[in-house]
Amino acid sequence: MNVLFVNPNLMQPPVAPLAADYIGSALRHAGISVALFDMCLGTTDAWKEGLSPSHIGRSFSKSPPSAVLFTLRNIDDAYFSSRDCFLAHYRDLVRSLRQKLGVPVIVGGCGFSVAPDALLAYLGADFGVQGACEHDLLCLLGSLGEPDRFPSIPGLVWRDNGAISLNPASPPRMAENFFSSRATVDNVEYYRRGGMVGVETKRGCSGRCSYCVDPIAKGSEVFTKPTSFLIEEIKSLLDRGIKVFHLCDSEFNMPPWHAMEVCSALKDEGLGRRIRWYTYASPRAFDESLAWAMAEAGCVGINFGVDHCDPQILAALGRSHTAEDLEQAAKAAAAAGIVVLFDLLLGGPGETRQSLEEVIDFCRGLEVARVGTPVGVRVYPNTPLAGEVLRQGPLETNPNLRGAVRGNDDFLLPLFYLSASLGDGWESYLRTLVGDDEKFLLPLREKTPSNYNYNANELLVEAIGRGHKGAFWDILRRVHDGLPPLEVP
């Protein structure tokens, strides 16, 4: 069997599609040929040409594809100031693929798994696979043309007598999954044009954040990758000259024992001296011993999703850390020489101008390099926040909502919770609170190092073109502060 894997993501700077690499390895292990058509690295004209059956046929030595895999990393940019939705673009591509190739189009990915039934209907695809388990996709590929087997295939989303049915996904079972040599994606080009390459050390998130889709898309139970797989994966990329990575787990230090295990493995293999990496982390369960272990393993930057410091607002967002945890995390990272971004999430339930002022003042006193201040919480389907919003009545009459409030009860289109207590002048008020403090990254549209919306960020693209590497927020920091690119071993 041959399959065509399509990455339709257009966001720039480009982010390498991990799903394509991991699924590609699983397919080849099962004897299935796979070719990647990567729109993120091409141009619109090249994509249109590449969609022709003759061009796609040249990707396979023996026969044309039996199916198309179509991955959705995001359905929008989750940014209140732009509200850039990608769904119409995806739908047009699915239609074109089905018309030109005449084979089933199978949709998956984290973006798809947020609302698989609604998205399958919207996109017009033939099948979907929700969740993050390669085994489920392999089961479907082995059962195409056998509809009697569909009800027993884990994670399958399909049309059944005019209605859309979906089966629960399998857990990732990473200890049984296939080692990825990262041979499907052009990671060298992504490194050149994107400044880093992602690696996952585990899947799933046990957090209960009211707005977050990770437990929905990846599962609420954490499954860790064998460190032997991780080390060989990093080495295979390092052999190609890739030295800067993003360990893109939901929160690297949850659970803490796994984070220490990964750091020990990297250090013992001597990789801490050969690579540099960034990651996301929770401010809870982050102390100086872990910070030093991460630094010795090559970590140079951490994005802490802190959201707020007010206990009532944190509780409304489903967060379990405290202001004291934030202070400890900042001190621990600073002691180990790790650069830190504290990412806030402002405007959520209970936010007032007073609480806005308090969190800005609180972060101003911390030893962190940058503080992200996005305002407006994207309300995604099937999250606790979406359930709460629905209980509050019609979307169009809810004073706390902004964006697509009509005909959007499935929350597919960009819809944001923005506390009515902030008033209409919240933007100017936030700018006044921040003043000329360069520590804060503002939710802006302008081309400036203070705007950290990464979607179509020309300044980032230009900086990476000049040799900058690393997490996008840290590249913006370096550009703003007039620093040279990250020193890479």
CATH class of the largest domain: Alpha Beta
Q: Indicate the proportion of strand residues.
A: 15-25%
The number of distinct structural domains comes to 2
- How far the N terminus sits from the C terminus, by CA atoms, comes to 42 Å
Compute the number of helices.
19
Structure description:
The chain has helices at 18-29, 44-50, 53-57, 87-101, 110-113, 116-123, 134-141, 187-194, 214-218, 227-238, 256-268, 288-296, 311-316, 323-335, 353-364, 384-391, 426-434, 458-465, 472-481; strands at 2-7, 33-38, 67-71, 105-108, 127-129, 156-160, 163-166, 197-199, 202-203, 223-224, 244-247, 276-281, 299-307, 339-344, 370-372, 377-378, 401-403, 415-417, 440-441. By secondary structure, the protein is an alpha/beta fold. The chain has a seven-stranded mixed beta sheet with strand order 2-1-3-4-5-6-7, with helices on both faces. Strand 14 (339-344), helix 15 and strand 15 (370-372) form a beta-alpha-beta unit. Helix 10 (227-238) packs across helix 11 (256-268), helix 12 (288-296) runs parallel beside helix 14 and helix 18 (458-465) packs across helix 19. The longest helix is centred in the first third of the chain and has 15 residues, at 87-101.
